[in-house]
Amino acid sequence: MELTKNFSLKEFGCKDGTPVPKVYYDNVQELANNLQILRDHLGVSVEITGSGYRTPSHNKKVKGAANSQHLIAKAADINAKGHAPKALAAIIEKLINDGKMKQGGIGIYSGFVHYDIRGTKARW
């Protein structure tokens, strides 16, 4: 199922093979819409590298936060070609500040950026 012109529902499934549950389709659609804005701004593909949705057991396995936004399909760990995590996070921050992307969580890691659509500012 296509969510946007560049993102499909399958991309957001749990890495343990579990698809995004239907109860979270609205969440994953909103997340994909925001990531599409980022992709259009960058002009390069945005890849979900680690997690989109996570089952509770997979979240525990990867030592995710107990209240992780991944559990409700509101988060994705991403990369974009040619953009180091710190630079990618700065671009997301600017798009949020410009009112183009939804406020949420941004976490900078060595190999990816976590972005979520929780609606409140969180940074790490």
UniProtKB/TrEMBL annotation:
Organism of origin is Flavobacterium cerinum
Upper lineage ranks? Answer: Bacteria, Pseudomonadati, Bacteroidota, Flavobacteriia, Flavobacteriales
SUPFAM superfamilies in UniProt: Hedgehog/DD-peptidase
Q: Which residues form the Peptidase M15A C-terminal domain?
A: 11-116
* Superkingdom of the organism of origin: Bacteria
This protein's name = DUF882 domain-containing protein
